[in-house]
Amino acid sequence: MVAAMETASYEVRRSARRRRTMSISRQAGRLVVTVPARMSATQERQLVPGFVRGFLAKEAARRLPVADTELQERAKRLFAAHLRPAAEGFEPVFSVRWSGRMERRWGSATTASGTIRISERLRTMPAWVGDYVLVHELAHMLETNHTKRFWALVARYPLAERARGYLEGFSHASDGEGAGRRIESLLGGLSTDWTAEGAALDPNGRGSGSTGRWAGGV
Ligand SMILES: [Zn+2]
């Protein structure tokens, strides 16, 4: 497949309040490990890399929910976390469903009706990749076309650039030469595809990307 596990780059922070446990989270996409202040440098070398690998493995194994209702809830949470702060008070009404009929696209958005479809192929990929597709389609509820503003909205999801890399790698690996090209639907409404767009993204999207806590004994 694609995009094996990312090379683990992370930041270690020491906390005087932390006594026996480590924690790890993503902050604006960056992995931050917090360890007890009294942990020795040797202990840090012995314990932190495995801790980070465990977190990444767990993160990579997580999947989007299969039920449409849960997918919809997830989309609402993603909108609230990443897009609402930039929506200037606009609250789009949208509905999100899985689609088993998308061969070459990861998602589509029809702005007039607020209809978002997500390809079932994303069910086998890490949830953080699927979240990117959701954020992408949700951003179309605020900005119809792939404008500069659109990409700035998408980049508010901290893992946007990584997810794009993952999907592009997947397209090339699975479809061969010429695959993953932009395909715009010419039928009805606005339908978008973006698997191979070259638009530059700001990797330092704002917003918090914490994916939860992982505590282990030290
Ligand atoms: Zn798009």
Any overview of this molecule?
It is a single chain. This protein is α/β, with parallel strands linked by helices and 218 residues long. The chain has two domains: 10-63 and 209-217, no CATH class; 68-175, 2-Layer Sandwich (Zincin-like), CATH 3.30.2010.10. It is built from five helices and seven strands; from the N terminus they run E-E-E-H-H-E-E-E-H-H-H-E. It has helices at 41-61, 68-83, 127-139, 148-154, 160-175, and strands at 10-15, 21-27, 30-36, 95-99, 107-110, 115-119, 216-217. Helix 3 crosses helix 5 (160-175). The longest helix has 21 residues, at 41-61. Residues 1-6 and 176-218 have low confidence and may be disordered. The chain binds zinc ion (ZN).
Topology readout:
Elements: E1 10-15, E2 21-27, E3 30-36, H1 41-61, H2 68-83, E4 95-99, E5 107-110, E6 115-119, H3 127-139, H4 148-154, H5 160-175, E7 216-217
Parallel strand pairs: 1-3, 4-6
Antiparallel strand pairs: 2-3, 2-7, 5-6
Helix pairs in contact: 2-3, 3-5
The chain binds zinc ion.
Residues 136, 140, 146, 192, 194 line the site of zinc ion (ZN).
Task: Give a brief description.
With 218 residues, this protein is α/β, with parallel strands linked by helices. It contains five helices and seven strands. Strand 2 (21-27) and strand 3 form a beta hairpin.
The overall strand count is 7
Strand-pairing-aware structural class: alpha/beta
- Overall 3D form: elongated
Q: List the helices and strands in order.
A: EEEHHEEEHHHE
Main sheet properties: 4 strands, mixed
Q: What is the class of the largest domain in the CATH system?
A: Alpha Beta
Number of domains: 2
Overall average residue pLDDT: 80
Percentage of residues assigned to helices:
25-40%
Rg for CA atoms = 19 Å
Number of helices: 5
